[in-house]
């Protein structure tokens, strides 16, 4: 079961008009999109909200505007997904479960890279109780998603069967919709990473087609930082332009890859060296 994210003071979004989840999904699903991520201080994240107050809507569900998330990431024994990201492979994938802790919903998601760097995300409904392992149905879904990437159904099934949980994250998210720009922005705070045991040391419990893993170690926090992610159909959004004008440029941060580098310093992490030694150096890396 996914762990609850730590509580914190939500960002101030009182000046923003509310939007519903139904309206957000209908007009700003953006399952194929161009993403940009920025790692900024919390006050900069608040500045984004204030600057967009006249044109942005904020997701509001039953009076709540900040929501707790948990994700479990899966990789091959040789960490193929991590190394594809580390070496900037064009045809790469990321596989995770995502749990919306406030609503109890969980999805299994497969993200791949499409033409011109666009992110393609496919997902299926999943049981919260299965969030830390892959069911037979989940393995079949993953294989179907990876087949076009690998060029072989057999190879896709082999990769799917080899997957194991390697890391989990928790964080809190505020979601903005910019309807006039066809864009979204998310702001994540209280990000933490936690390593998983492989299940090969006797701590795991066999179940179905995979191994149920056991968390090990304390969560590693990203500190008083926020991850701002813009999700645009093509052109840059007002969120990007505000951050650029404030001196911020897109960051290489990936919740999965950066988290693995934080949790496992022995892994090659040249792509994230500046991020690990500067922005995260005094918090997550030293935890």
UniProtKB/TrEMBL annotation:
Which residues, if any, are the signal sequence?
A: none
Matching CDD domains: PolyPPase_VTC_like (cd07750)
- One short Pfam name that applies is VTC
According to the lineage, what is the superkingdom? Bacteria
**Can you name the source organism?**
Actinomyces massiliensis F0489
Q: Which SUPFAM superfamilies match?
A: CYTH-like phosphatases
Q: Where is this region: Disordered?
A: 198-224
Q: Name one GO biological process term.
A: polyphosphate biosynthetic process
Its recorded name reads VTC domain protein
Give the residue spans that cross the bilayer: none
Q: Which segments constitute the VTC domain?
A: 33-264
Q: InterPro entries in the record, alphabetically?
A: CYTH-like_dom_sf, VTC_domain, VTC_sf
């Amino acid at each position: 079961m996914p762990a609850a994210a730590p509580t914190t003071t939500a960002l101030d979004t009182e000046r923003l008009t509310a939007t519903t989840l139904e309206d957000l999904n209908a007009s700003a699903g953006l399952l194929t999109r161009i993403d940009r991520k920025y790692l900024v201080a919390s006050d900069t994240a608040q500045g984004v909200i204030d600057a967009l107050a006249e044109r942005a809507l904020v997701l509001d569900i039953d009076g709540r505007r900040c929501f707790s998330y948990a994700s479990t990431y899966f990789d091959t024994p040789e960490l193929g997904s991590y190394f594809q990201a580390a070496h900037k492979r064009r045809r790469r994938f990321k596989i995770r479960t995502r749990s919306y802790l406030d609503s109890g919903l969980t999805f299994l998601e497969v993200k791949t890279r499409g033409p011109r760097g666009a992110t393609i995300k496919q997902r299926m409904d999943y049981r919260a109780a299965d969030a830390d392992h892959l069911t037979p149905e989940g393995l079949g879904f993953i294989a179907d998603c990876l087949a076009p990437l690998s060029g072989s159904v057999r190879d896709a099934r082999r990769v799917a069967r080899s997957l194991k949980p390697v890391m989990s994250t928790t964080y809190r998210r505020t979601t903005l919709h910019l309807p006039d720009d066809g864009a979204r922005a998310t702001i994540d705070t209280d990000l933490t990473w936690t390593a998983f045991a492989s299940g090969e040391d006797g701590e795991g419990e066999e179940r179905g087609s995979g191994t149920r893993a056991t968390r090990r170690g304390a969560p590693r926090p990203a500190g008083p930082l926020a991850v701002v992610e813009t999700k645009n159909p093509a052109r840059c959004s007002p969120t990007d332009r505000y951050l650029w004008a404030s001196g911020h440029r897109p960051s290489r941060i990936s919740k999965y890859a950066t988290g693995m580098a934080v949790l496992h310093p022995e892994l090659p992490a040249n792509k994230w060296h500046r991020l690990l030694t500067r922005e995260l150096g005094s918090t997550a890396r030293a935890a």
